Automatic annotation (TrEMBL):
This is Gfo/Idh/MocA family oxidoreductase. Residues 7-116 form the Gfo/Idh/MocA-like oxidoreductase N-terminal domain. Keywords: Oxidoreductase. The keyword Oxidoreductase applies. It comes from Endosaccharibacter trunci.
């Protein structure tokens, strides 16, 4: 017997929604996009209702779940209202502007019996599972993250990143942090951070972090740069306990061990995420991972600012 497709309402029609969410929804027969809530008039797919707010969309009825692609500063109230209205919720990363807000939403979801997904899409990249398995077997004595891209290329004209709660370079940087915590065989702690903040802005455009683990105090660091010129660099290099080198590149699309390619695959993160959301809804579970957001929050707490 075929399950009835889950009827989705999408809130926020920015670049990430258009580039990733709309194609992933359209390609999955377990979902049907029935409504979009966004500011102003815009083109929407044929047969999809357009609303000016999520409240208006919920009042119109006919949806089972909402997908939140709004800035994180406004996310908490929207997710709370959707859960209390009896809807399942898929949150684009970062889930909210604070750890406490995400934790409270997990509490509300449990109380209402609805599914809540904090969608760290990079955790669903092809390299994560094999990297985690290798690190579990062979240990980790060092780690270097380099996450560098040009914000103007991927988010032209967007300024909420530079306001309190916008996270600045950690908006893309949490992708690396999500991979790091998913793969590391033991917890990661931020030990030091240095931010570069441009005049008139409140969040960093670049950052350098030092990490520790319960067994090692040094050897783990990261460089994030959202003002990078040239080809994007989304890499993590782990030095294994036996001296081997594990290289993740293309944001998790490729993985090599001691220079030998283990995998090199196209981007399938969002299709995998939506399959995961479907499985969570069908089994009555939630997935509210907070460790990437906690590491970013710890960096803000410890940072020296230039």
């Amino acid at each position: 017997m075929t399950e009835t497709p889950l009827r989705l309402g999408l809130v926020g029609l920015g670049q990430i929604a258009r580039v990733q969410h709309l194609p992933a929804i359209a390609a999955n027969p377990d979902f049907r996009l029935v409504a979009i809530a966004t500011r102003g008039q815009t083109d929407v797919p044929e047969g999809v209702a357009l609303h000016s707010s999520m409240g208006e969309m919920i009042a119109a009825g006919g949806i089972d779940a909402v997908v939140l692609c709004t800035p994180p500063q406004m996310r908490y109230a929207l997710v709370r209202d959707a859960l209390l209205a009896g809807l399942h919720v898929f949150m684009e990363k970062p889930p909210t502007q604070t750890v406490a807000e995400t934790q409270d939403l997990a509490r509300i979801a449990a109380g209402t019996g609805r599914t809540l997904l904090a969608s760290w899409h990079s955790m669903f990249s092809a390299a994560v599972a094999p990297a985690r398995d290798i690190l579990a077997r062979r240990g980790m004595q060092a780690m270097r993250i380099d996450w560098q891209e040009d914000v103007h290329k991927f988010h032209p004209g967007v300024d909420w990143f530079w306001q309190p709660g916008g996270m600045g370079v950690f908006d893309p940087g949490v992708n690396a942090l999500s991979i790091a915590v998913a793969c590391a065989p033991e917890p990661l702690f931020v030990r030091a951070a240095r931010f570069r903040v441009r005049p008139g802005e409140q969040t960093p455009v670049a950052a350098d972090l030092a990490f520790a683990t319960p067994s090692r105090e040094t050897g783990f660091d990261a460089h994030f740069d959202w003002d990078h010129q040239g080809l994007e660099r989304w890499t993590i290099r782990w030095t294994l306990d036996d001296g081997g080198v594990l290289d993740l590149s293309r944001g998790g699309g490729a993985l090599a061990l001691d220079g030998k390619t283990l995998l090199d695959e196209p981007d399938t993160e969002y299709p995998r995420l939506y399959a995961h959301f479907r499985d969570l809804v069908r089994s009555g579970r939630s997935d509210v991972e907070i460790r990437p957001l906690m590491l970013a929050a710890d960096a803000f707490s410890l940072a020296r600012r230039d």
